[in-house]
Design brief:
Helix content is 38%, strand content 24%. The chain is α/β, with parallel strands linked by helices.
Amino acid sequence: MALPRRVVIALGGNAMTGPDGSATPGAQRDAIAGAARHVAAVVDTGAEVVLTHGNGPQVGNLLVKNELAAHEVPPVPLDWNVAQTQATIGFTLADELDAALAALGSAKRTAALVTRTLVDPADPGFRTPTKPVGRHLPRERAQHFIDLGQVWEDRGERGWRRVVASPEPLSVVDVPAISALSAAGFVVVCAGGGGVPVVDDGRDGAALRGVEAVIDKDLTAALLARELDAGTLVIATDVPHVMVDFGSPRARPLGRVTAAELHAHATAGQFARGSMGPKVDAALRFVQQGGDRAVITSLEHIADAVAGDDVGTVLTA
């Protein structure tokens, strides 16, 4: 199989924290350094790589800081949190990926771009926020943030938790800049956490503003791959394959599948909404809307996933 000219790789949240879920700066840097070595192996094949990533633990940490400091400084909006975590993860990935590339003798270097993703202000997700973010709080502490205009829900014994909109991504605003950096020879880190959600209050992107929302990062990765005309989308997660009948004696991994087969499994309710479901949805969207192939596999297999169809769950049109 010929190597694709351009590959979009989406790193899952497990690539950004320690094995035990630790999100200390040291644990995050160590985890990112490990992920960077796998990405560098893909770059070393000659593929043109654009990299995106999750940011769930990092945004969660910032939300806690908002809560603890609310009596001293005003909490910052969620779009600011996304932008801040994009920048932090982006420069750390750039540092570690540059080091990994240099260790392979590659002259390639990395550029990180804080990236905006356009959403529709009329998206139904804004009317009914459903995406839980941050930690659980008792009712009396949650009330302070409700008074600030946030939406919180009673989650039973664990307490109250904030819920936010999760609108559909319509376009990645900064694709021209990403394309220019990629064409100039950089490995580009972009659209972290699904991108900073923005709406257009003007005409043709003339008046963009951030909004309180969280965009699914895998759906943005699929959109980004299409807008960049990538040949392959690789979604890295913590398991080597998508499984059907998970948790039962009939559990089995999916290898090479068609879009029709994978869609049938999804329709049958095989994939949980909070875990594998969005990854399967993203892979299907990419291939059904013109992409050549999408692969869902574990981080350590991403180089093999780009080079051939023998690892992971490989989806073709």
